[in-house]
Each structure stands twice: as C-alpha cells, then as structure tokens.
Amino acid sequence: MSNVLTIRGLKVAAPNGNLLVDGIDLDLAPGEVLGLIGESGAGKSTIGLAAMGYGRGGCRIVGGTIDIGGTSLMEGTRANRENMRGARIAYVAQSAAAAFNPAIRIGEQIVEGALYHGKMTRPQAEAWKLELLKTLQLPNPETFGERYPHQVSGGQLQRAMVAMAMSCRPDIIVLDEPTTALDVTTQIEVLALLRSLIQRYNTSALYITHDLAVVAQIANRIMVLRHGKMVEEGTAEQVLEAPREDYTRMLVAERQGNLSGAIASHSVGDVLLDVSSVHAYYGKTPVLDDISCNLRRGETLAVVGESGSGKSTLARAIAGLLPTSAGMVSFDGRRLDRSYKHRSKEELRRIQLVYQLPDVALNPRQTVGEIIGRPMKFYFGMHDVPKAKEVSRLLDLIGLPQDFATRLPGALSGGQKQRVCIARALAAKPDLIICDEVTSALDPLVAEDILKLLKSLQQELGLSYLFITHDLGVVRRLADRTLVMRRGRIVEQGPTAEIFQPPFHPYTEELVTSVPELRRDWLDDVLAKRQVTA
Amino acid sequence: MTSKLKAIPVSAWLGLTIVTLNLLVFLLGPMLAPYGMNEIVGAPFDPPSSQFWFGLDQNGRDMFSRLLAGAQMSIGVSLAASLISFSIGIPLGFVAALFGGWVDTVLSRIVDTVMCIPVLISALVVLQALGSSVPVLIFTIALLDSTRVFRLARVVAQGISVLEYAETARLRGESMGWLITREILPNALPPLIAEFGMRFCFTFLFVAGLSFLGLGIQPPFADWGGMVKDNQQAILYGLYAPLFPAAAIALLTIGVNLVVDWLLNAAGTTQGADR
C-alpha cells in the first residue's frame, strides 16, 4: 500500500537563517503511528507543522518535498495547502486551553472544520461529532458540545480537541505532546482513548513527545531526533530494546533509571522545619487543610500530588508568600511569622526557594554575576574581591564556566539558568532550600544532571530540601521521606521506601501505576488491571 | 561597532536624521534664522521665493525664520512637559503597584477623577484661572499627562512584580528602592520608552492645539501650533502659509515614532522570544 505521507530532505529555517530541521526523510503508511522523540529544540514540533506545510513564528520550509497521499504540498498554491489542512491532515496541540476559542461552544468548534471544507452537511457533521464524543468517552456526549471550553476539565478539553481534529476524517493526525500538560492519572485515559481512536478509524499519526514511555505505548515506529537531524529510526521494539545510537541509549537508560532508582538514605539531624496543622485559603476556598509535617537537618522531604493538590501552596505557605489562616510553622525551634514581610532578614536568609521556570526566575537585565553576588552583599556585606571570589567558587560548584559571570540570562540554556537559580539560593548559605518542581520544565537528560547536582550539594553542605514535584521517579531517588497530597490534604506520609512499597494507600497506588513505563504492553496491563478492580 | 550601525534599519536612520535635525534647530534655531522672529519684511502672505523660502505670514514676517525660532518654544515645552510627566507618573505608578492596598486605591482613584474630565477642558480651566505663561503651561500639561503615564507604569510594574525574580528579591528582604530601580525599572523600560515617544508627540500636538485656541504659547513668541492658527485663513485663499508649520509638526512626530519603533524592536530581540 502506498504511503499517506512522504517527506524527503525536509529543511526548515528560522527567521535568522538557522536550520531548525535539516534533511529529514519520513514515511507514514496508512494506519501507522510514528513517534517523534527528542529534547526541546530537536525540531520535532517543527516537523509536525511542516508536514502540514506550515512554519510557526516566521519559520520557512526551505527545502525538500512533502507529499500527502500523492499530492505535493510544496508545489500547490496557498489555497491548496489550506484545503489540505484540517481535511487531510489535522493537528492536536499540547495546550487545549489555548487551542479553543473561549467564546464559542465546544460543539460548534468541533463541526466547524467539516462544514468549512464542505466535507459534510450539518446533520452529517453533527452525527459524526456525536460518534466522536462517544468514542472519546466524554460525559453526556449529546450535550457536551453545548458547553464552553472553560466549563470542562483539562483532560476533557484535550479529548475534545482530538474530536475537533478528527472532524473531517483526516488521513493523518499530528499529535504534538497531547498528554504532556495533563496529570499522570488523566494522561493514561487520554492515551488509551487516542490509541483506540486511531485503531478504530485506521488513521495515521505523527506522535510528537519527549517521553519515551508514552510513545512506547502508542507508536509502531519511533524516530529519534536531535538538533534537527535524525539520530535513528526503527520499529518501536527495536529502538526501545536495542537502540543503535549512543544518544538513544542515553535516553532509554535515563527513562529506565527514572523508575528503578535506588532510594536515597543518609544520616539526618534534629528537626529543622516543623509545620503543625496549617490551614490556608485562597479567598474562601480552602487550599491547605490541616497540614502537619516536619523536616530534619540534612533530610529531603518530597511533597507529591497532582495539579491542584496544594503542594506548591504548601511551599508558599512555608515561605510566607501565602499567609496561613491557622496553624504554625516553626524553623529551628522558633516560630516563623505568617508573612515573609514580618520575618527577620536572618530568617529569610535561611530558607531559599528555587522555582519551576528558570526563565522568569532570573532578572533578564542582570548578569549572572550580579544575580549570584547580590545575596552575598545583601546578607553578608561582601564587596568587590571577596564577592567576586565567592561568585567564582559558586560557579565552580554548580558546574558553570567562569566567564558566565558576565553573561545575561538570555544567553543561557534552560538547564544553565536553573543552575544559576540554585547558585543564587546557595549564595545565601541557607539551611533549607524549597525546590518547587525544579526539573519539570527541563529536558530529561538536563533534569537528571540538576538532580545529581542537588544530591551532591546536599552531601557536601548538609542542606535540607523540601522537594515539591509530581514526578515519582525523582521522589524515589532523592527523598528520604515523602508526603502525598490531594486536594489540599495529606493522603499519607512516611519514609519513601514504605510509601512506594505494598501495601499502598489506594491513591498512592493510582499515582504509582499511572506513571508510564517503557514496556510496550504497559498500557494494556494497567487497563486490564483497572478493569478487573472496577 | 560598524556591524551595529549596519543593523540599524533605514526607517530608523530616517527617524534619527529627522530627530537630530529638529534638535539642532531646537538648539541653534534663532541663530540660523536669516531674519528676526518679529521682523516685518514684506507684504502679508507673500508666496515662497528665493529670498523667503517658505513665504511670508499674515503679518509679513518670514515664515522660515519663524519656524526656526518657534522650534525652541514648541519642542522645549513638549520635551519639558513629557519629562516632568514621566518623572511624576513612573514613581507613583510603581509605588501603587508594589504597595497595593489603600495606597494603590487612593492614587488610582485620584488619577481616575482627573482622567474622567477631558484633558482639553481641564487644561482650559487651569490656564484660564492661572493665566497662560510658559511654566504654567508646562506644568499643566505635565500633570494631566502624568495620569496616563501612571496608569501604564502601574500595570507594567504589576506584571513584573508577580514574576519569580521580583518575588525572589522580595523574599530576600530587599528594600522598595532596590525593587523599583533594579528589578522593575530595567524591565519596564521598553513599554515606557514607547510611551515616551507617543506622549511627546501628543504633547506637541496638544501644545499646538492650545496655541490654536489662543491659550498656548502667547505672542510675540513664535510656536508651530500658533503659526498654524495665525495663518489658517490663508488656506481659504489657496495659499501655502499654514502648511509649513503643520508639516514641521508632522515631520517631527513621524521622526520620533520611527526612532521609538526601532528602539522597541532592538529591545525585543535582546530579550529573546522566551515569553
């Protein structure tokens, strides 16, 4: 059978002339799912969009041919390309919330494509919409379309976007990180539905993701990309089980290590941070409900939970950014004020925060040296030479070259920025560092390095970490003790080893089993198991 | 350095040339003028000739000389008014954004009250009451304009102060001064510079408008807006006279905006397209 999509020698250039995608060949057979894997900047989304003849943000396709079911996309006119988009090849983006028009009902947006392209009459399109909504197991499919995008949950909206993409019964569907923004427990549903949908309608798909374990569940073939070039391509089994290239091996090893890592354990001192029955509200909504926990010197306490569980809120309450309404936070035996505004300089110094997004955590108008040096001057009155020495010592410690001191954050990569954030926290010589999802915005291999750095810093300096994360792999490797949260309450807490060993708390078990594994039959296993228990 | 010069687009060169020319005229205008500002050299509305390049005005004074001399008044008043309005609006806007609460409420409501009266009406009232002199003119315009600068500075600072780097500085225990000068101001500059370009031009036109109504810069001083007003009836007879000062105003407005556009673009690229 002939291919539905054939790409030869694809080159895409950024507005400044740099090649983002350099000579990619790609074939897609009917009903086949090709997984595109790579870190950020690998060009995987660019390829996905180029397959539709589209360049985002001024990018241009400068070479190669794109052929959809025998029609060349590059030779046609703009109108031709627009006819193909949506009708023959459709796109599902990472953020469903940004892809829907908030002022138009969901159902209207789903049928819009089919009507616009003249593929169906309105009754036909409505019937097809209903079938899609049923297939995607959306609640009350008959009336679901009458809702507005803000009235449904993130997982439902993501599924609705898939329905929108399928509205013209396209031959090919480009899935650009469709489950990345979702919680693990939601991801599993969406993933299972996507797979059954693709099989049911024999649709071909390009599945773009950075998570090998996700692509393992859904793709027939996998293409690994790096810096806009292909690293290797093969069947899913071959790439996952017998990767040929070093880079792929690294990716696979990192993902496996993520799940089977040894649990950290080292000596700890007396209680440093004590949180006792803390309550907090956003307006009248309770966001922290009776939270008690403590953290010893030199210890790592992980706080895990899905989005909305209150884990970041707990961090903000401890830092004094969100004043608590009841309960008490003590640090080193002394009670801390509810608000950071009334805490002493010394109390502020001893607790430092590292954020999720290093891009906005560093002032773009200050050099790295200024950023790291400021706490030294502010807390310890260091000047000129001693300060410069200390800055260079910290740069060494976090593994950045000395000449970075004069650079602005804009010239740094995500991982380097996060290192600078860590150095800024260290410059205050803190006892406790609150790490709020510090690795979730980073690529897996970069995140790995940051975790190693944090671990070695702890051993060297005897730091305590409060580690906020949704990534259970991180927790297992780094945390002495773990606190599981859900909807502002503590589900359970205890030594990490006990939390992640049977007997599980039911919610913890759901979290643990929802983390995709590299096995190809993982999704089937989990679904089968859940069927049994249900 | 040469590569930096080459990176400047043509439109920016044009804008820079126009602005530099205007600044030169602003500084040296009266010295360059071939005739005195109030010197009557011929019959009213004489058309342009080799002797009088832009012709003569309604009193028979040389239009070219008056344009050169008027630059001082027109540009000077606008520049002073814009600078003062920014030095009032920016600090107040930042303080309102950072303190929030009742400080923000009081400042914002005062500004709302001033803003709900049309600018021209407020200006007319003040100028009628105090009499139109150059300092009164400058301060009236500056105060009225500062409400708009306040609004912008406040909203920009609010946006920046919730970003993590500003939060880090607050958590470190930094003073208000550090927050404003080091964290907020450098990052708020691009929109504020753009606003400055806009405000300057509006002020310029506003002064021109006031002069047109007879409440701006008073005779015998020449100013561009006043010159449009004084020569307006010439249009009825198909004469060029008022077009020259009008063109001078338009040219400077375009020039300033070209420069501002370029500054903003340059700032945009150095910041990166992260957000």
Provide a descriptive summary of the structure in words.
The complex is a heterodimer of chains A (534) and B (275). Chain A has 534 residues and is an alpha/beta fold. Chain A is 40% helix and 24% strand. Chain A contains 22 helices and 20 strands. With 275 residues, chain B is mainly α. Chain B contains eleven helices and no strands. The longest helix of chain B has 38 residues, at 176-213. Classes of the chains: A alpha/beta (534), B mainly alpha (275). Chain A binds chain B through residues 57, 319-321, 340, 343, 345, 348-349, 353, 355, 357, 359-366, 374-375, 378-379, 410, 424, 428, and chain B through 163-168, 170-174, 182-183, 186-187, 270-275.
Write the layout of secondary structure elements.
The complex is a heterodimer of chains A (about 525) and B (about 280).
Chain A: E1 5-13, E2 19-28, E3 33-37, H1 44-50, E4 60-68, E5 71-72, H2 78-84, E6 89-92, H3 96-99, H4 106-116, H5 122-135, H6 141-144, H7 154-165, E7 172-176, H8 184-201, E8 204-209, H9 212-218, E9 221-226, E10 229-235, H10 236-241, H11 246-260, E11 271-282, E12 285-296, E13 300-304, H12 311-319, E14 326-331, E15 334-335, H13 345-350, E16 351-354, H14 358-361, H15 368-380, H16 384-397, H17 414-427, E17 432-436, H18 444-461, E18 464-469, H19 472-478, E19 481-486, E20 489-495, H20 496-499, H21 506-514, H22 522-533
Helix pairs in contact in A: 4-5, 4-7, 7-8, 11-19, 15-16, 15-17, 16-17, 17-18
Chain B: H1 2-7, H2 10-32, H3 63-99, H4 101-115, H5 119-130, H6 134-161, H7 164-172, H8 176-213, H9 224-230, H10 232-236, H11 243-271
Helix pairs in contact in B: 2-3, 2-11, 3-4, 3-6, 3-8, 4-6, 5-6, 6-8, 8-9, 8-11, 9-11
